User: What shape does this take?
Amino acid sequence: MPAQSLPDIHRIAISTSGGDAPGLNAVIRGFTKAAILKYRWEVVGLLNGLEGLVDTAKTIPLTLEAVRGLLPRGGTILGAASHGNPFQRSVVKDGQAVEEDLRPQMVKNFRYLGLDALVCIGGEGTMKIAADLGERGIPVVGVPKTIDNDLAGTELTFGFHTAVQTAMEALDRLQTTAASHHRVMILELMGRYAGWIALMAGIAGDADIILIPEIPFEMNEVVDAVLKRNRRGASFSIIVVAEGAREKAGDLHVMRCASEGTYANERLGGIGDWLAEKIHEQTGLECRSTTLGHIQRGGSPIAFDRILATKFGVKATGMIAKGRFNHLAVLEGGEIIARPFSEVVGREKNVDPEGQTVRYAERMGVNFGRTNREVRL
Ligand code: F6P
Assistant: This one.
Protein backbone atom coordinates (compact mmCIF):
# COMPACT_ATOMS: atom_id res chain seq x y z
CA MET A 1 0.00 0.00 0.00
CA PRO A 2 1.47 3.42 -0.88
CA ALA A 3 2.37 5.54 2.14
CA GLN A 4 -0.16 8.31 2.69
CA SER A 5 1.43 11.75 2.37
CA LEU A 6 1.15 13.94 5.44
CA PRO A 7 -0.41 17.39 5.13
CA ASP A 8 1.81 20.43 4.85
CA ILE A 9 0.79 22.47 7.89
CA HIS A 10 1.98 25.93 8.91
CA ARG A 11 -0.90 27.94 10.30
CA ILE A 12 -3.99 26.74 12.19
CA ALA A 13 -7.08 28.48 13.56
CA ILE A 14 -8.87 27.44 16.73
CA SER A 15 -12.40 28.43 17.80
CA THR A 16 -14.76 27.96 20.77
CA SER A 17 -18.49 27.73 20.01
CA GLY A 18 -21.68 27.07 21.96
CA GLY A 19 -22.14 27.67 25.67
CA ASP A 20 -18.88 28.00 27.57
CA ALA A 21 -17.59 25.21 29.82
CA PRO A 22 -14.76 25.04 32.36
CA GLY A 23 -11.71 23.77 30.49
CA LEU A 24 -12.06 25.68 27.20
CA ASN A 25 -8.94 27.70 27.95
CA ALA A 26 -7.11 24.52 28.94
CA VAL A 27 -7.81 23.08 25.46
CA ILE A 28 -6.63 26.30 23.79
CA ARG A 29 -3.46 26.21 25.89
CA GLY A 30 -2.75 22.49 25.36
CA PHE A 31 -3.30 22.79 21.62
CA THR A 32 -1.23 25.96 21.23
CA LYS A 33 1.70 24.66 23.29
CA ALA A 34 1.93 21.36 21.40
CA ALA A 35 1.38 23.09 18.04
CA ILE A 36 4.27 25.48 18.68
CA LEU A 37 6.67 23.34 20.68
CA LYS A 38 6.31 20.02 18.84
CA TYR A 39 5.29 21.07 15.34
CA ARG A 40 6.48 24.72 15.05
CA TRP A 41 3.06 25.72 13.70
CA GLU A 42 1.57 29.17 13.98
CA VAL A 43 -1.77 29.34 15.86
CA VAL A 44 -4.54 31.88 15.34
CA GLY A 45 -7.57 32.28 17.62
CA LEU A 46 -10.95 33.03 16.00
CA LEU A 47 -13.06 35.33 18.16
CA ASN A 48 -16.66 34.63 19.21
CA GLY A 49 -17.13 31.21 17.71
CA LEU A 50 -16.50 31.31 13.98
CA GLU A 51 -16.87 35.09 13.61
CA GLY A 52 -13.18 35.31 12.73
CA LEU A 53 -13.96 33.45 9.50
CA VAL A 54 -16.69 35.94 8.63
CA ASP A 55 -14.76 39.06 9.62
CA THR A 56 -11.01 38.47 9.37
CA ALA A 57 -10.33 41.32 11.82
CA LYS A 58 -11.78 39.10 14.55
CA THR A 59 -8.69 36.95 15.01
CA ILE A 60 -5.83 37.02 17.50
CA PRO A 61 -2.39 35.41 17.43
CA LEU A 62 -1.98 32.61 19.97
CA THR A 63 1.60 32.46 21.14
CA LEU A 64 3.21 30.75 24.13
CA GLU A 65 2.94 34.07 25.97
CA ALA A 66 -0.74 34.45 25.04
CA VAL A 67 -1.66 31.09 26.61
CA ARG A 68 0.49 31.46 29.72
CA GLY A 69 -1.53 31.03 32.94
CA LEU A 70 -4.64 29.86 31.09
CA LEU A 71 -4.97 26.39 32.63
CA PRO A 72 -7.09 27.35 35.67
CA ARG A 73 -9.03 30.12 33.98
CA GLY A 74 -12.79 29.61 33.37
CA GLY A 75 -14.67 30.82 30.28
CA THR A 76 -12.82 31.24 27.00
CA ILE A 77 -10.32 33.94 26.06
CA LEU A 78 -11.67 33.68 22.50
CA GLY A 79 -15.27 34.47 23.42
CA ALA A 80 -18.09 32.08 22.63
CA ALA A 81 -21.15 32.29 20.41
CA SER A 82 -24.17 30.17 21.13
CA HIS A 83 -26.94 32.20 19.56
CA GLY A 84 -28.09 32.27 15.98
CA ASN A 85 -26.80 30.41 12.95
CA PRO A 86 -23.11 31.17 12.25
CA PHE A 87 -23.72 30.40 8.58
CA GLN A 88 -26.41 33.01 8.09
CA ARG A 89 -26.70 36.76 8.24
CA SER A 90 -29.82 38.84 7.78
CA VAL A 91 -29.38 41.43 5.03
CA VAL A 92 -31.78 43.76 3.26
CA LYS A 93 -31.87 43.29 -0.52
CA ASP A 94 -34.25 45.36 -2.67
CA GLY A 95 -36.03 46.42 0.51
CA GLN A 96 -36.55 42.79 1.56
CA ALA A 97 -34.91 41.08 4.56
CA VAL A 98 -33.18 37.93 3.31
CA GLU A 99 -30.80 35.39 4.84
CA GLU A 100 -27.33 35.43 3.30
CA ASP A 101 -25.33 32.17 3.30
CA LEU A 102 -21.93 33.03 4.80
CA ARG A 103 -20.25 29.73 4.06
CA PRO A 104 -18.64 30.66 0.73
CA GLN A 105 -17.21 33.77 2.41
CA MET A 106 -15.93 31.69 5.35
CA VAL A 107 -14.12 29.31 2.98
CA LYS A 108 -12.66 32.29 1.10
CA ASN A 109 -11.49 33.92 4.35
CA PHE A 110 -9.97 30.64 5.51
CA ARG A 111 -7.70 30.81 2.43
CA TYR A 112 -7.19 34.60 2.78
CA LEU A 113 -5.93 34.09 6.36
CA GLY A 114 -3.42 31.53 5.03
CA LEU A 115 -4.84 28.77 7.20
CA ASP A 116 -4.09 25.08 6.70
CA ALA A 117 -6.49 23.62 9.27
CA LEU A 118 -9.28 24.56 11.69
CA VAL A 119 -10.02 23.28 15.21
CA CYS A 120 -13.64 23.59 16.39
CA ILE A 121 -14.23 23.14 20.12
CA GLY A 122 -17.90 22.64 20.93
CA GLY A 123 -20.89 20.37 21.39
CA GLU A 124 -23.04 18.46 18.93
CA GLY A 125 -24.21 21.62 17.15
CA THR A 126 -20.60 22.71 16.65
CA MET A 127 -19.59 19.29 15.31
CA LYS A 128 -22.40 19.58 12.77
CA ILE A 129 -21.06 22.97 11.70
CA ALA A 130 -17.51 21.56 11.57
CA ALA A 131 -18.66 18.64 9.40
CA ASP A 132 -20.33 21.10 7.02
CA LEU A 133 -17.14 23.16 6.72
CA GLY A 134 -15.19 19.92 6.18
CA GLU A 135 -17.46 19.08 3.25
CA ARG A 136 -16.63 22.49 1.79
CA GLY A 137 -12.95 21.68 1.74
CA ILE A 138 -11.73 23.10 5.05
CA PRO A 139 -9.47 20.57 6.85
CA VAL A 140 -11.18 20.53 10.24
CA VAL A 141 -10.92 18.59 13.52
CA GLY A 142 -13.18 18.80 16.58
CA VAL A 143 -12.84 18.78 20.35
CA PRO A 144 -15.93 17.80 22.38
CA LYS A 145 -17.20 20.23 25.00
CA THR A 146 -20.35 20.53 27.06
CA ILE A 147 -21.18 20.56 30.75
CA ASP A 148 -24.25 18.48 29.81
CA ASN A 149 -22.10 15.44 28.85
CA ASP A 150 -24.73 14.55 26.24
CA LEU A 151 -22.39 14.25 23.25
CA ALA A 152 -22.47 10.77 21.70
CA GLY A 153 -19.25 8.95 20.84
CA THR A 154 -17.23 10.09 23.85
CA GLU A 155 -17.38 8.74 27.38
CA LEU A 156 -17.00 12.25 28.76
CA THR A 157 -16.85 15.85 27.65
CA PHE A 158 -14.66 18.29 29.57
CA GLY A 159 -16.52 20.72 31.84
CA PHE A 160 -19.01 18.09 32.96
CA HIS A 161 -17.22 16.99 36.12
CA THR A 162 -16.60 20.60 37.17
CA ALA A 163 -20.33 21.29 36.83
CA VAL A 164 -21.08 18.19 38.91
CA GLN A 165 -18.61 19.32 41.58
CA THR A 166 -20.20 22.79 41.72
CA ALA A 167 -23.69 21.29 41.98
CA MET A 168 -22.54 18.89 44.69
CA GLU A 169 -21.12 21.77 46.73
CA ALA A 170 -24.47 23.59 46.38
CA LEU A 171 -26.23 20.46 47.65
CA ASP A 172 -23.90 20.24 50.65
CA ARG A 173 -24.97 23.77 51.57
CA LEU A 174 -28.65 23.05 51.00
CA GLN A 175 -28.44 20.00 53.27
CA THR A 176 -27.61 22.05 56.35
CA THR A 177 -30.21 24.77 55.81
CA ALA A 178 -32.85 22.16 54.88
CA ALA A 179 -32.17 20.25 58.11
CA SER A 180 -32.27 23.41 60.23
CA HIS A 181 -35.61 24.59 58.84
CA HIS A 182 -37.23 21.17 58.27
CA ARG A 183 -37.89 22.03 54.65
CA VAL A 184 -38.10 20.35 51.30
CA MET A 185 -35.25 21.85 49.31
CA ILE A 186 -35.23 21.58 45.54
CA LEU A 187 -32.17 22.22 43.39
CA GLU A 188 -32.77 22.73 39.65
CA LEU A 189 -29.74 21.87 37.53
CA MET A 190 -28.78 22.27 33.87
CA GLY A 191 -28.22 19.49 31.35
CA ARG A 192 -30.71 20.25 28.61
CA TYR A 193 -32.42 16.96 27.59
CA ALA A 194 -29.98 14.75 29.50
CA GLY A 195 -29.88 14.03 33.23
CA TRP A 196 -26.15 13.48 33.67
CA ILE A 197 -25.43 16.51 35.88
CA ALA A 198 -28.52 15.93 38.05
CA LEU A 199 -27.84 12.20 38.41
CA MET A 200 -24.17 12.47 39.35
CA ALA A 201 -24.51 15.59 41.53
CA GLY A 202 -27.58 14.08 43.19
CA ILE A 203 -25.70 10.94 44.18
CA ALA A 204 -22.57 12.85 45.28
CA GLY A 205 -24.66 15.41 47.19
CA ASP A 206 -26.92 12.86 48.93
CA ALA A 207 -30.21 13.80 47.31
CA ASP A 208 -33.30 11.86 48.40
CA ILE A 209 -35.10 12.32 45.11
CA ILE A 210 -33.50 12.77 41.66
CA LEU A 211 -35.65 13.69 38.68
CA ILE A 212 -34.12 13.40 35.21
CA PRO A 213 -35.45 13.68 31.63
CA GLU A 214 -34.78 10.00 30.93
CA ILE A 215 -37.25 8.93 33.66
CA PRO A 216 -40.48 10.96 33.35
CA PHE A 217 -41.71 11.16 36.95
CA GLU A 218 -45.04 10.57 38.65
CA MET A 219 -46.01 13.30 41.06
CA ASN A 220 -47.64 10.88 43.50
CA GLU A 221 -44.34 8.95 43.76
CA VAL A 222 -42.43 12.16 44.57
CA VAL A 223 -44.98 13.24 47.19
CA ASP A 224 -45.04 9.75 48.65
CA ALA A 225 -41.25 9.66 48.95
CA VAL A 226 -41.23 13.00 50.81
CA LEU A 227 -44.01 11.92 53.18
CA LYS A 228 -42.38 8.55 53.86
CA ARG A 229 -39.16 10.29 54.83
CA ASN A 230 -41.10 12.48 57.25
CA ARG A 231 -42.84 9.45 58.75
CA ARG A 232 -39.45 7.82 59.25
CA GLY A 233 -38.32 10.84 61.25
CA ALA A 234 -36.36 12.76 58.60
CA SER A 235 -37.72 16.26 58.91
CA PHE A 236 -36.33 17.47 55.59
CA SER A 237 -35.83 16.25 52.01
CA ILE A 238 -33.46 17.18 49.21
CA ILE A 239 -34.68 16.98 45.63
CA VAL A 240 -32.47 17.42 42.57
CA VAL A 241 -34.34 18.12 39.35
CA ALA A 242 -32.81 18.44 35.90
CA GLU A 243 -34.11 21.38 33.87
CA GLY A 244 -35.24 18.92 31.19
CA ALA A 245 -37.16 16.60 33.55
CA ARG A 246 -40.91 16.36 33.16
CA GLU A 247 -43.89 14.72 34.70
CA LYS A 248 -45.03 11.52 32.93
CA ALA A 249 -48.21 13.21 31.86
CA GLY A 250 -46.69 16.68 31.47
CA ASP A 251 -44.62 18.86 29.19
CA LEU A 252 -41.11 20.27 29.32
CA HIS A 253 -40.72 23.50 31.28
CA VAL A 254 -39.62 26.03 28.69
CA MET A 255 -38.74 29.61 29.60
CA ARG A 256 -38.65 31.17 26.16
CA CYS A 257 -39.47 29.90 22.69
CA ALA A 258 -37.02 29.59 19.81
CA SER A 259 -38.98 32.23 17.90
CA GLU A 260 -38.20 34.87 20.51
CA GLY A 261 -34.90 36.67 20.07
CA THR A 262 -32.06 34.85 18.38
CA TYR A 263 -31.98 31.82 20.62
CA ALA A 264 -31.14 28.72 18.61
CA ASN A 265 -32.70 26.22 21.03
CA GLU A 266 -35.62 26.28 23.40
CA ARG A 267 -34.54 27.57 26.81
CA LEU A 268 -35.38 25.13 29.57
CA GLY A 269 -36.10 26.12 33.16
CA GLY A 270 -38.74 26.65 35.80
CA ILE A 271 -39.45 23.09 36.87
CA GLY A 272 -37.89 23.64 40.33
CA ASP A 273 -40.35 26.39 41.28
CA TRP A 274 -43.24 24.42 39.79
CA LEU A 275 -42.27 21.37 41.82
CA ALA A 276 -42.00 23.39 45.05
CA GLU A 277 -45.58 24.66 44.57
CA LYS A 278 -46.92 21.19 43.81
CA ILE A 279 -45.23 19.51 46.75
CA HIS A 280 -46.38 22.24 49.12
CA GLU A 281 -49.97 21.96 47.82
CA GLN A 282 -50.00 18.20 48.30
CA THR A 283 -48.10 17.87 51.59
CA GLY A 284 -48.43 21.20 53.36
CA LEU A 285 -44.66 21.12 53.90
CA GLU A 286 -42.52 24.20 53.49
CA CYS A 287 -40.63 24.01 50.17
CA ARG A 288 -37.91 26.16 48.63
CA SER A 289 -36.40 25.97 45.17
CA THR A 290 -32.94 27.09 44.03
CA THR A 291 -31.88 27.27 40.40
CA LEU A 292 -28.11 26.96 40.14
CA GLY A 293 -28.05 28.21 36.54
CA HIS A 294 -24.85 29.46 34.95
CA ILE A 295 -22.86 29.04 38.17
CA GLN A 296 -22.49 25.47 36.85
CA ARG A 297 -20.70 26.79 33.76
CA GLY A 298 -18.46 29.41 35.32
CA GLY A 299 -15.22 29.28 37.24
CA SER A 300 -12.07 27.25 37.27
CA PRO A 301 -12.05 23.65 35.96
CA ILE A 302 -11.35 20.91 38.51
CA ALA A 303 -8.16 18.83 38.05
CA PHE A 304 -9.95 16.10 36.07
CA ASP A 305 -11.27 18.57 33.49
CA ARG A 306 -7.94 20.39 33.23
CA ILE A 307 -6.26 17.10 32.36
CA LEU A 308 -8.99 15.90 29.97
CA ALA A 309 -9.14 19.27 28.19
CA THR A 310 -5.35 19.40 27.88
CA LYS A 311 -5.23 15.88 26.41
CA PHE A 312 -7.99 16.73 23.93
CA GLY A 313 -6.02 19.83 22.84
CA VAL A 314 -2.78 17.92 22.37
CA LYS A 315 -4.59 15.09 20.55
CA ALA A 316 -6.04 17.63 18.10
CA THR A 317 -2.50 18.61 17.05
CA GLY A 318 -1.63 14.95 16.40
CA MET A 319 -4.80 14.49 14.35
CA ILE A 320 -3.90 17.49 12.18
CA ALA A 321 -0.30 16.32 11.76
CA LYS A 322 -1.55 12.92 10.55
CA GLY A 323 -4.25 14.43 8.31
CA ARG A 324 -7.04 12.91 10.39
CA PHE A 325 -9.58 15.54 9.36
CA ASN A 326 -13.38 15.39 9.74
CA HIS A 327 -12.81 13.64 13.08
CA LEU A 328 -13.07 14.76 16.68
CA ALA A 329 -10.98 13.72 19.66
CA VAL A 330 -12.99 11.55 22.07
CA LEU A 331 -12.44 9.66 25.32
CA GLU A 332 -12.78 5.89 25.12
CA GLY A 333 -11.58 3.47 27.78
CA GLY A 334 -9.31 6.10 29.31
CA GLU A 335 -7.57 6.84 25.97
CA ILE A 336 -8.11 9.78 23.63
CA ILE A 337 -8.90 8.55 20.13
CA ALA A 338 -10.20 10.09 16.89
CA ARG A 339 -13.80 9.47 15.80
CA PRO A 340 -15.50 10.62 12.57
CA PHE A 341 -17.99 13.51 12.87
CA SER A 342 -20.57 11.27 11.19
CA GLU A 343 -20.68 9.01 14.28
CA VAL A 344 -21.49 11.92 16.59
CA VAL A 345 -23.63 14.39 14.65
CA GLY A 346 -27.39 13.98 15.08
CA ARG A 347 -27.05 11.69 18.08
CA GLU A 348 -27.42 12.27 21.82
CA LYS A 349 -26.00 10.40 24.79
CA ASN A 350 -28.54 9.88 27.56
CA VAL A 351 -28.66 8.29 31.00
CA ASP A 352 -29.77 4.66 30.87
CA PRO A 353 -32.82 4.46 33.16
CA GLU A 354 -31.95 0.81 33.85
CA GLY A 355 -28.18 1.35 34.02
CA GLN A 356 -25.96 0.57 37.00
CA THR A 357 -25.76 4.12 38.38
CA VAL A 358 -29.53 4.55 38.54
CA ARG A 359 -30.12 1.01 39.89
CA TYR A 360 -27.47 1.35 42.60
CA ALA A 361 -28.92 4.70 43.67
CA GLU A 362 -32.40 3.15 43.84
CA ARG A 363 -31.01 0.22 45.83
CA MET A 364 -30.00 2.65 48.56
CA GLY A 365 -33.38 4.33 48.58
CA VAL A 366 -33.03 7.23 46.15
CA ASN A 367 -36.36 7.95 44.48
CA PHE A 368 -36.52 8.78 40.75
CA GLY A 369 -40.23 9.58 40.73
CA ARG A 370 -41.09 6.04 39.70
CA THR A 371 -41.91 2.90 41.66
CA ASN A 372 -38.67 1.76 43.24
CA ARG A 373 -38.32 -1.93 42.39
CA GLU A 374 -34.99 -2.25 44.18
CA VAL A 375 -36.11 -1.65 47.78
CA ARG A 376 -39.28 -1.72 49.86
CA LEU A 377 -39.53 1.55 51.73
O1 F6P B 1 -25.59 23.22 26.93
C1 F6P B 1 -25.11 23.86 28.06
C2 F6P B 1 -26.21 24.62 28.75
O2 F6P B 1 -25.65 25.22 29.91
C3 F6P B 1 -27.45 23.81 29.09
O3 F6P B 1 -27.27 22.99 30.21
C4 F6P B 1 -28.48 24.91 29.26
O4 F6P B 1 -29.77 24.43 29.00
C5 F6P B 1 -28.06 25.92 28.23
O5 F6P B 1 -26.70 25.66 27.94
C6 F6P B 1 -28.21 27.35 28.67
O6 F6P B 1 -27.89 28.16 27.60
P1 F6P B 1 -27.72 29.74 27.70
O7 F6P B 1 -26.37 30.01 28.30
O8 F6P B 1 -27.79 30.19 26.30
O9 F6P B 1 -28.83 30.24 28.56
Notes: The chain has two domains: 11-158+301-343, 162-297+352-363. The chain has a mean pLDDT of 95. The first strand starts at residue 11 and ends at 16.
